[in-house]
């Protein structure tokens, strides 16, 4: 029967489905259907989805009955999926174990189930994890284990790119997929871009796929290894330079080089603004991420950018964007500015 569906390209399907699921808009009573290069995702509220997506009427088949974790538990658990790893955030170990067992018993595709065992910590921004289910370890087939070096390594797919990563060794948030795509779509072929805190490459790799010459720097040597591998597996290794170290120690090699800078290090990006200004060319777009109180989410970041860049540069604020809620009364925000040399 005809139901309202968000229509997107298949490359954008998983990220769009996740974004809609975060807003509780996916209609689980109908199947998601692929047809002629497009994916049709049934939604419960067409009006709520129309603000960001193309909503059409589509003859979506009713969803076949599947056993989901909530069917086993009797309540709907909260979890996040990253590739074939399912991530829990439960304070009660017994409840976490019950949920993990229910996920393993359900039809949900999951190789590993983990529970957060610590907050993000240290200058490398990694967590500890409790591995509750590791299906590959329980399988006698060696081919299953060879596909992943550890239980916490997985492949995440996002807007036509794939990223190999280990959540126990690197920081990565799939919730920022839509925001990353927003920034990546602004990149032009031949542009020189520099990600100052690049991680495994979720900005660098798709920017290179758009034809940019991309440099990614990160303190974490494991993340840099994954960045190089992800550049290779996405076919952009020749356009990506991966640097391990503190960006403040490599700035001399790229002074005045960048036409676009990404500063996705909320809480402490302001400590690196002097370095960003040195990296910037005569005209440079800066994507600056911050965590601020809801009363003034953008002001402190804009003030810090002006203090670092003026009078050497004119500073034009292009975009003020709330990316997501971070904590009660606090927002993760992005400020896009253009720096123009005087």
Provide structural commentary:
It is a single chain. The termini are far apart. The chain is globular. Helices cover 26% and strands 33% of the residues. The chain has three domains: 2-59, Alpha-Beta Plaits (2-Layer Sandwich); 69-151, 2-Layer Sandwich (GMP Synthetase, Chain A, domain 3), CATH 3.30.300; 167-341, Rossmann fold (3-Layer(aba) Sandwich). The strands form four sheets. Strands 13-12-11-14-15-17-16 form a seven-stranded mixed beta sheet. It has a four-stranded antiparallel beta sheet with strand order 2-3-1-4. Strands 5-6-7-8 form a four-stranded mixed beta sheet. The protein is α/β, with parallel strands linked by helices.
Comma- or semicolon-separated keywords:
single chain, 342 residues, alpha/beta, Alpha-Beta Plaits, GMP Synthetase, Chain A, domain 3, Rossmann fold, 3 domains, seven-stranded mixed beta sheet, four-stranded antiparallel beta sheet, 12 helices, 33% strand, globular
Short description:
This is tRNA (Guanine37-N1)-methyltransferase. This protein is of the alpha/beta class. It has helices spanning 13-22, 46-49, 69-73, 93-105, 135-138, 142-146, 177-184, 204-209, 221-233, 247-250, 273-279, 299-309, and strands spanning 2-9, 33-35, 38-42, 55-59, 80-82, 85-88, 112-116, 129-134, 153-158, 161-166, 192-195, 213-218, 240-244, 258-263, 280-293, 313-327, 330-341.
Q: What is the number of helical segments per DSSP (H or I, 4+ residues)?
A: 12
Order of strands across the widest beta sheet?
Answer: 13-12-11-14-15-17-16
CATH architectural label of the largest domain = 3-Layer(aba) Sandwich
What name does the CATH topology of the largest domain carry?
Answer: Rossmann fold
Average pLDDT rating? 91
Overall tally of structural domains: 3
State the secondary-structure class: alpha/beta
What percentage of amino acids are in beta strands? 25-35%
Task: Identify low-pLDDT runs.
Answer: 140-148
Q: What is the rounded distance between the termini? A: 61 Å
Major sheet attributes: 7 strands, mixed
Order of helices and strands: EHEEHEHEEHEEHHEEHEHEHEHEHEHEE
**General shape:** globular
Determine the fraction of residues in helical runs and give it as a percent range: 25-40%
Per CATH, the superfamily of the largest domain is: Vaccinia Virus protein VP39
